[in-house]
Amino acid sequence: MRRIPWAAEYLTTSPSRIQIDQSWTTIWQKQEDQKLHLEIGCGKGGYSAAMAQLYPHDLFIAVEKNESAAGLAARKFDEAHLDNLRLIYGDGADLDLCFKSGEVDVLHLNFSDPWPKKRNAKRRLTAPSFLKQYKTLLSEEGQIIMKTDNSSLFEYSILEFLNAGFFLEDISVDFRREEHPEDPLTEYEAKFVENGQPIYRCIWRKHPVQ
Hints:
This protein is an alpha/beta fold. It has a single domain (32-205), classed as Rossmann fold, CATH 3.40.50.150. The protein has helices at residues 7-13, 46-54, 67-80, 128-137, 151-163, 187-194, and strands spanning 17-18, 36-40, 59-64, 85-89, 104-110, 138-148, 167-172, 200-205. Strands 1-4-3-2-5-6-8-7 form an 8-stranded mixed β-sheet, with helices on both faces. Helix 1 (7-13) crosses helix 3. The chain is globular and about 40 Å long.
């Protein structure tokens, strides 16, 4: 995306921002019936903002490493004035600095960069190194919910999830053929739907449901 000149300065003062080396527990004390959601690669933040509004009892942290996108997300979060929503400006590979083992209940991967060339496969957010990290971060009943418009990334990811020992809970190769009011349709996703592109979605669990 184009560079946003004011993003760097804005991120230094945004009240919605959590430093990546700052434990999220310094911001909130999670209640027993709350879920902690983590979106990695949130872009401009539309999905996490909509989810935080839809599920006000849960807690949402969005992560974005692109400075301009993170600046836009921070401003969106600040203007929304939601107590259950925060942003980390940083790399998803460093999340163990902010989260301890088993602290994340739901991890969201929305329209991640597919990195189509094989030599860049390790950069995909569903590459083995990332999945190993997610398994550590997730609670015992933790879920990963992935959505993409890229069929190749979807196929690659299914195999990697299985290889990493995750358990498939749900899958769709055309998620938006029906309305899903429980899952906000963001501006970015709406463009795909408007163009007739199918949305691929899968849900994985750390352990099978008993």
